[in-house]
Amino acid sequence: MKNEWPLWEVFIRGQHGLNHRHVGSLHAPDAELALKNARDVYTRRNEGVSIWVVEAQHITASAPSAKGPMYEPSESKVYRHPTFFDIPDEAGHM
Amino acid sequence: MYAQMIKSEATADDPEKLAAFQARIDAGEKIEPKDWMPEGYRKTLIRQIGQHAHSEIVGQLPEGNWITRAPTLERKAILLAKVQDEAGHGLYLYGAAETLGVSRDELTEMLLDGRMKYSSIFNYPTLTWADMGAVGWLVDGAAIMNQVPLQRTSYGPYSRAMIRICKEESFHQRQGYHIMMKMAQGTPAQKKMAQDALNRFWYPSLMMFGPSDKDSVHSAQSMAWKIKMNTNDELRQKFVDQTVPQAEYLGLTVPDADLRWNENKAGYDFSQPDWSEFFDVLKGNGPCNTERLAARNKAWDDGAWVRDGLMAHAAKKRAARVAAE
Description:
heterodimer; A: alpha+beta; 22% strand; B: mainly alpha; two-stranded antiparallel sheet; 13 helices; 2% strand; globular
């Protein structure tokens, strides 16, 4: 249709101390109503303590085809993990 | 189910890509919106998720019918919360369908002009308060049978919407059964009303699973793609096996003289619904088809000025903000 309400992505902080997490999307004419709709659609059972909404067109996403070049380099760098290094028990807790 | 008679679309894609796609599904990977997918997979899913979403939305009407006439304030608040959930379920599902490249307004318009369907069950009227019990117990019960396995469907956004819905759906069935318990333990007139509701909703509930699809090619393709997890007959059998003892507990009689426990298959033998009635309802000739579509069309048309007005207001505020900067 000619005048469709834009799409917004909704992020909710489930509990104090946790990150906001993507929970879904909705349509709304502006940010204020997007927040109100998000409250009605995504927090009917105490699911959140804070809501972010962002218009979907403002999100930049990586392409699925870029999976290889994007993430493969980190696979070969096992020394980035602490378990790569053997530390003798005698050295104590580390 | 909420999505009935979904024909899977033929696919004319590169066989190599198709095989790689099928291998991902067989390995239990989730397909996400930007991943490559066969055109048939995309189209079938739009139709299936769309029909499911439409069912949630139209499904508000038979229950909305009783909100102002609920017997107590508490029942009214519960029913209101349930109907609000149905709206939410519709929105989760529309959101999932939109990730496949169809817009919300396109979906709505296809419902309103009859190009897309909703479940046959919502074309039956809700005549008494006991129907609120029967709908929650039987209709939501049948829906759960289908939705629980669909949480494992291959399409990521659909699977996530189903997980949210299933979390909320159990409340719907239990509140319905609770109404039936009260009525069945009430006065003789109330018990009669409960029996009457069961009589009217039993076969339409069995129809929700759709006709037998043992030999359907479409069904086989959808099952291979993991957008359909069980055959219609499997789910119907499971529903009957679960529901009959619940009816017995209520002291109500399932309206099927041929209903019998079959030790060999460890399940009930039962009568099939009248499939000619089912096809007739799908064609638009059920008791409430016209009323339901008219109500949805009216809501859409009457709401047009609100939708447009809010967009105009948003544009005005945006312009004022830009001017101030």
